[in-house]
Specification:
Two copies of one chain form a homodimer. The first copy, chain A, has 387 residues and is α/β, with parallel strands linked by helices. Chain A has 14 helices and twelve strands. In chain A, helix 4 crosses helix 14 and helix 7 crosses helix 11.
Chain lengths: 387, 387
Amino acid sequence: MRRVAIIGVGMTKFGEHWERGYRDLVVEAGVKAIEDAGISGEKIDAGFVGTMASGRLIGQEHVGALIADYMGLNPIPVTRVEGACASGGIALRQAYTAVASGVADIVVAGGVEKMTDLDTSGVSDALGGAGDQEWELFMGATFPGLYALMARRHMLEYGTTEEMLAAVAVKNHKHGAKNPYAQYQNEITIETVLKSKVVADPLKVFDCSPITDGAAGVILAPLDIAYSYTKKPIEIVASAQASDTISLSARKSLTEIAATRIAAQKAYKDAKVTPKDIDVVEVHDCFTIAEIMAIEDLGFFKKGEGGKASLEGRTTFGGDVVVNTSGGLKAAGHPVGATGIKQAVEITWQLRGQAEGRQVKDAEYGLSHNVGGSGATAVVHIYKKAY
Amino acid sequence: MRRVAIIGVGMTKFGEHWERGYRDLVVEAGVKAIEDAGISGEKIDAGFVGTMASGRLIGQEHVGALIADYMGLNPIPVTRVEGACASGGIALRQAYTAVASGVADIVVAGGVEKMTDLDTSGVSDALGGAGDQEWELFMGATFPGLYALMARRHMLEYGTTEEMLAAVAVKNHKHGAKNPYAQYQNEITIETVLKSKVVADPLKVFDCSPITDGAAGVILAPLDIAYSYTKKPIEIVASAQASDTISLSARKSLTEIAATRIAAQKAYKDAKVTPKDIDVVEVHDCFTIAEIMAIEDLGFFKKGEGGKASLEGRTTFGGDVVVNTSGGLKAAGHPVGATGIKQAVEITWQLRGQAEGRQVKDAEYGLSHNVGGSGATAVVHIYKKAY
């Protein structure tokens, strides 16, 4: 197994791109990543792209071939992977594996979703396919509903409050306000969140990530040749993925995402680090409760203490660990297939010292955490400054 | 890179499984493959599954996690890959890569599609997502229409006739009649085909593969440990994938699938064999013209001579090479995501000498060929008897 590094990154602004299509978004992100790596397209040996629901959202499957075509990469293989909202993280993991194994040298990993071509009820229905269609979606359970169950249980067991949930959204908007790629670049207050419309009690509109269009890409290479392309390679020191039951009702616990815990344990072991070593983290905050569970399951805080830690400012600049400098899914937006790759882009910028107004000082280790559905898939990557 | 072998295979009967769901099909095929390999589920390190359009066909995405759950494989990663009708071949290729690289030892590759839960117009629309949604499907071009264009051009350039197309269907039904897993196990005549209803001139109903439910699975292991599980390991000696334009209109030629040619050239080179060495072949005959182009592009016959060769019986028992002993997509059926894996199952049975009434005598090398869309993706695998 070879060591693997990120040599180029790029992304579109996340937001409602009414005037643009799936293909435009992919090409913009891909070209930016290729330019950032300073390579020509012919150098690329293979590609992987994460897209969750293009069949439902834009009537297009076979997006690997579509992207190979529109990026001018033919005839190299470009493969679509899908694991609901973890599709981007899975694409990164497949690309990492291809380079690590020696199957390919230069590999592009992309993520993209075009969500605003359908009305919101169509989008909700498509997203429902991330859960158990027969036992959840068909019965009327939407994703806000599923995460609301987890939030209620977390509140009951650990005393987590609606203010603590709101604090996650407030912090992520504060970070997103410094990210020119974020869908929402405005700050909000706890009061804004608490007074916003209830979606699935206790979750309100401002506890939920939005519907977003966007694409992101990263270029990977073996570490030993990465230095010939960039002065600032970022090594991927661990890539782990785990599965859990598709249906929430079959889980042993509603207050943890076991797949996150299992993937994180493997990633820390492979990278030979502990949570204390991590300086900057992108977690999967599809809902505010998801960030609270994530920072617990990833080992940054004890189970049950994530809410309190968020309210006390321990997850932002000056705290124990800086979480979601990009603004997270909440403020940066959540084009589902693109999110896992966007996380890698943000961590790369942080470890290169290019995150401008939201830079974590002297960041050496980063971690990204991407979840599919209500936790049936979790993907964790750990990154290290390799210069 | 380690050498990789198939140690177990299994599949459902292909057909219209009105009374069964996606999950039932997956579990049947998976359990059969695991039993055939003589392993326990805990031995499995990872899984890849090819499914094209579960979001459209059954409202379910995130099928990697679903399958991990229903197969009792949690918490190992199971990853869905999608490349239209080549999804199964891509799943096999990813599983092959995982084992070859040393990322995993025992890996399951599956393919599944449940197509009969929608009406045929819904299925046609979902399948249209394999082509170019903006430039083909939206304009009304269906897949029979796209392949009809190729057929017309092949007839014009090479004198291919409707009888030659029909001969492919007749031969595949003859083979399928000997395959207990085939959707159609009845023989037909040239006249049946020529008199059947026109779908997209010159293609008639009997020139087209059907709508099918089904699943198939194979278990892979490093060759050196394969012998501890089976006396008859089948080595995968090459795995290649190539891309072409998503839209037919952008191709240089309408009478070849360039992605097939490119993938095949790489596969022959990696396997150090020529078409002459191959004894048994499963090709992607989604339409009869597709088989004619495939046997040319794979190098078994010169460009333009595939139709004549088919009519002359050179692609069946006693001919130059035996093509589609399973009955192909035409007679065995075409549950899109499952087809690429079914091909591997059939080749394994052939190389083990377990194909009963359709056995190719002393088969030593096999090849499978899986196409996505109108040829934007092609995947070629070459297999060798390793005992």
